Amino acid sequence: MKEKSVFLEKEGHTPKNRVLDFLIIAQEFDYSLKDIAKYSGISYPCMKQLKKELIKGKWITLTRKVGKAQMYKLNLKSKKVQKFIDFYWSVVNEEVDKRLNIKEKDISEHLKSPSSTSLPISVKHI
Fold first, then answer.
1. Full set of structural domains in the chain with CATH
2. 121 Cβ neighbours under 8 A, 6+ residues apart
3. Side by side, which strands form the sheet with 69-74?
4. What pLDDT, in 10s, does the model give residues 54-89?
5. Dihedral of alpha carbons 1, 19, 36, 47, sign
6. pTM of the model as a whole
């Protein structure tokens, strides 16, 4: 069973959101269009069309060529992409906090307490 992304549940399962969701989670590596489509859960023809928009908007960048395959990665140098990543994690963190009934007051009190053990306060820190 494939796990559902909290971000996609909140912001919609559009092809672009699916691709960006995958690329944010797996940003350490570069991927071929075929792999991006496969792991994002969209069709390869849809990915080929979306590639044009993502390159034009500087969301992704070509990193290298392996044989005939072109490898792409999230463009982490783009301020727009950096802001989107921040937005992505804020949506995820807000939903996780809501599901776990964590309130900001509880977190700040926990952080002030010297005897408390260190706990991750967001999904990004896990």
1. 6-121 (1.10.10.10)
2. 102, 107, 111
3. 31-32, 69-74, 60-66
4. 999 999 999 999 999 999 999 999 999 999 999 999
5. positive
6. 0.75
